[in-house]
Specification:
Helix content: 55-70%
Number of helices: 6
Shape: elongated
Radius of gyration: 20 Å
Strand order of the largest sheet: 1-2
Structural class: mainly alpha
Number of strands: 2
Largest sheet: 2 strands, antiparallel
């Protein structure tokens, strides 16, 4: 006998839906707190990535690290360069390669972003006790263990085309 489509909901599917809803809520709250800084979540992510690299990364490195197509990085860098947060600099060893470095304005923006992210996190985590937050952190770490995480300051190498 086949299970009915109107039978009890699948617990894993419900849990996945809850995770998606929390993710969307976190994204909305994060976006709301980033608006006064004048930056989008994608631009924020690119700035944070550049700041974690040991040396100014190449555009290809950023695309690889952010898991986006190079054109998306170009658009993000264009907007951040226009706002004065990053600048394109030539690679010292290969003049065909452009690297992206933070400006003083970019470092100030990163400080403002950290504050905005902290406030957004406080808002979304407010209903949880310190013990629940610790448990949630442990659970999320367990889920993240299966995903590659770059813990050092180097951007992953990519092949040049």
């Amino acid at each position: 006998m086949q299970p009915s489509s109107s039978g009890p909901p699948d617990a894993d599917a419900l849990l996945a839906e809850q995770l998606f809803r929390v993710t969307r809520r976190l994204f909305r709250i994060h976006k709301q707190h980033l608006a006064p800084v004048g930056i989008t979540p994608a631009q924020s992510r690119l700035l944070r990535t550049v700041s974690h690299c040991a040396e100014p990364p190449r555009m290809a490195d950023l695309a690889h690290r952010l898991e986006v197509v190079p054109r998306a990085v170009t658009s993000l860098v264009d907007a951040l360069e226009e706002s004065g947060s990053v600048r394109r600099v030539p690679d010292p060893t290969n003049r065909r390669v452009v690297r992206i470095e933070l400006t003083d304005n970019g470092r100030a923006t990163l400080r403002a972003l950290r504050d905005a992210r902290r406030i957004a996190a406080e808002e979304i985590l407010a209903p949880l006790s310190p013990e629940q937050r610790e448990t949630l952190g442990e659970l999320l770490s367990t889920l993240m263990d299966g995903a590659p995480v770059h813990r050092n300051g180097d951007c992953p190498p990519t092949s040049e085309h």
